Amino acid sequence: MNALAIEGLRKRFVRHLQDARELSVLEGVDLELQAGTCTVLRGASGSGKSSLLRCVYRTYRPDAGSIVLRYDGQSIDLATADDRAVLSARRRLVALATQFLQITPRVGAVDLVAQEGLEREPAAELLRSLGLADELLEIAPATFSGGERQIVNLAITLARPRPLLLLDEVTASLDPTRRALALRALSARRDAGGTLLAVFHDPPDHPGLVDRVLEMRAGRLVSA
Amino acid sequence: MTSALRELLDAGPRTRSGYAFAYMDESAKREVRRALLKGVCIPGHLVPFASREMPVARGWGSGGLQVTLATIVPDDVLKVIDQGDDQSMNAVGLRELIAATSGVPTTTDARAATLIQTRHRIPQDDLHEGQVLVFQIPVSDPLRRVSARPSVTRRLHAEGDYTALWLYLYEDTAQMGRSSFTHSYPVRVDDGYVMTPSPIPRYDVPRLHQAPQLSLFGAGREAAVFAVPPYTDVVPLAFEDRAFEPERFTEDCWRCGADGSYLDTEFVNGLARMVCSDTAWCARRRAAAG
Amino acid sequence: MSVALRVEDLTVRYGPGCQACAEPTASDSAGALCADCGSVHGCREVGFEVGAGEALGIVGESGSGKSTVLAALNLDQPVSGGRILLDGDEITAAAGSDRRRLRAESLGIVYQTSQQGLDLAISAGGNAASRLLAVGWRSYERVRAEALTHHESVELAGERLDTPVRAFSGGMRQRVQLAKALISRPRLLLLDERTSGLDVSVQARILDLVRRIRRETDVALVIVSHDLAVIRMLAERVLVMQAGRVVEAGLTDQVLGDPQHPYSQLLVSAQLT
């Protein structure tokens, strides 16, 4: 059952501040992902990996193509859906996790995760399972290191059982121990039927996590 | 008193040549009466009128005086009091002017008077049907604190927006446990407009409710009149869980021994005494006691 | 999800208007001032929707029209054209006691400066209470209890309920405005976040309160700010305004991450988000 079907996806930027110069980042991407799989995107900087994730999440507005997400007998084309439908899809169906945590002043790590719909104790447990030290649970992440912020980011992403997870370098700042914890959690999500599309700078070494590796070059997938 | 007025008084009790009955010319009186009629038809509503120059300065009862002069007829019996006292300088001056220019007899007995002009008090005697009570008013609009501009307050009255008054009540209650209005307590008339009952004390405010007399209010400087017809609801603004409280006195009148009348402080031989504010009423009680 | 607020073709024009500036395709570069008749458009043909529980940000430089739109929504500003609908009812030309009731009940606003929104001589509780008194609450105890509840919900100390607002700091005054806005459980909350002079930690506290309000109620929120980071934190959709018009509208992360219109690109590039 294919959970995500991308067809003919194109994206270019028009930089009005630079004489309307055009920058093309996706030249036509076709991709199908099955539920319960983890697909890794690789490629040089600027090859379009992050842009692809952002188009699926609708942070970037695609210029052409379709992005059809299927779940529970329903489907939605994220490329053309209206704002409210996209917001609804983000709440229930798809999450995007990057390296960077949006800093919300004054709110502690546990509360940030709990606001995704968990009780405090399960939220705390999730953070602990990803390797966050107990003494940091109630602290607002503004003073956290990059790695600690990434743990919070991942916990927020995993808090709700969304079927599609888009992951952009989510282990980049983690030490080996915590990276292993993160990959184990992602693997468990995949095993439970989740669909993962991830960008990793270093190929993840968790056994059995990666089902498929795709290469991107100059805005296209070069192997499928 | 001016020499002209002295001559007037010396000349005898009936109307003087060259003066209209009750000093004001007929067209002036007619205009005030029209305004008063409108006021009676719309209880508590401020009605503007062309306030004439009077032989008393603004701030000394010129409005109440115009209402009295426009209303008085030869058959009336007049009483004038100031803070309950018939013999204060202001009460005397006003009474003599009205009497001199109208020939109307005067009295200090509130039961016998048909027309009573008053400043800051209602007579201690309960009044009856057929009597007219004229109040002197300094500030005619209870919303004056909100804005000095009539265009603003007229709109608030028209829309029944008395939020500001309720807010003052709330603030006073929060800060002091009670309202700070010691006099001029705002009242709702006939379940409609909110008016100021003139600077009468809280003690007198409940006595306006369903009163049998006609109450007329005149503000000379502000050029406005308003009215409360007989047997009209007059209810002080109060929260439903903070009842309106009139003053209570812990002493009896030092002169006549009455308990429950409104008392003023008077200095007798250097000592402060609480005595009836209504001097005529108090004197009558003392006379009856022998 | 129900649409709490719908705005259609909202136009505020100062001046007589003429054929030239009535033209809907009048160039953006002409700005808000009409060269022919001298009319200035505070905003023109602005349209958007906000559902119950949703938040919409409005950004743009000074003179973009965002303040005009906010003032029009709060019925502070007479409107030259277009409609404002709250829960499907048109409120555009509400006047007199209707307007007063809407402003006291269904609408709540936090102004840029506390003097606009508060009577500084009155206590914090009194400022909030005035909205209840305006719509007929007549029990002192209930009014006071409600004022205290909302006062404490914005993290103000109960002991200061009766303190005149002029004794409060800027950040506290903002919170008094917030309590006052929310005491009537409005359908629409208007927040003008551009309060200068508040230090960062104070501002953070208020933003946190607004986030909590969004979680706990289904009030629709319209927030005007200079600060894109604030918009990103509080609003999931945003309008970009320039010279009185909406030049771009969409999901906040999309407008900030992939701005289409030249002016949006300029705005985003000039700020740290």
List the topology elements:
The complex is a heterotrimer of chains A (224), B (290) and C (273).
Chain A: E1 2-15, E2 21-34, E3 38-42, H1 49-57, E4 64-71, E5 74-77, H2 83-92, E6 94-97, H3 109-114, H4 120-129, H5 146-159, E7 164-168, H6 176-191, E8 195-199, E9 212-217, E10 220-221
Chain B: H1 3-10, H2 26-41, E1 47-48, H3 62-71, E2 78-82, H4 89-102, E3 115-119, E4 132-136, H5 150-158, H6 163-176, E5 187-189, E6 194-195, E7 214-219, E8 224-228, E9 234-236, E10 263-268, E11 271-276, H7 279-289
Parallel strand pairs in B: 2-3, 3-4, 4-7
Antiparallel strand pairs in B: 1-8, 5-6, 5-9, 7-8, 10-11
Chain C: E1 3-14, H1 19-22, E2 40-51, E3 55-59, H2 66-73, E4 81-86, E5 89-90, H3 96-106, E6 107-110, H4 114-117, H5 124-134, H6 140-153, H7 170-182, E7 188-192, H8 200-216, E8 220-224, H9 228-234, E9 237-242, E10 245-251, H10 252-257, H11 262-269
Parallel strand pairs in C: 3-8, 3-9, 6-7, 7-8
Antiparallel strand pairs in C: 1-2, 1-4, 4-5, 9-10
Report the end-to-end length of chain A measured between terminal Cα atoms: 17 Å
CATH homologous group name of the domain at 34-61 and 93-215 in chain A: P-loop containing nucleotide triphosphate hydrolases
Strand order of the largest sheet of chain B: 1-8-7-4-3-2
Helical amount of chain A: 25-40%
CATH fold topology of the largest domain in chain B? Rossmann fold
| Whole-angstrom Rg of chain A | 18 Å
Task: Give the number of domains of chain B.
Answer: 2
Elements of chain B, N to C (H/E)? HHEHEHEEHHEEEEEEEH
| CATH-level-2 architecture of the largest domain in chain B | 3-Layer(aba) Sandwich
Unreliable stretches covering 5 or more consecutive residues of chain A: none
Overall 3D form of chain A: globular
Oligomer, anyone?
Answer: heterotrimer
Overall CATH class of the largest domain in chain B: Alpha Beta
Largest sheet of chain A: 6 strands, mixed
Number of helices of chain B: 7
Say how many strands of chain B there are: 11
Helical region count of chain A? 6
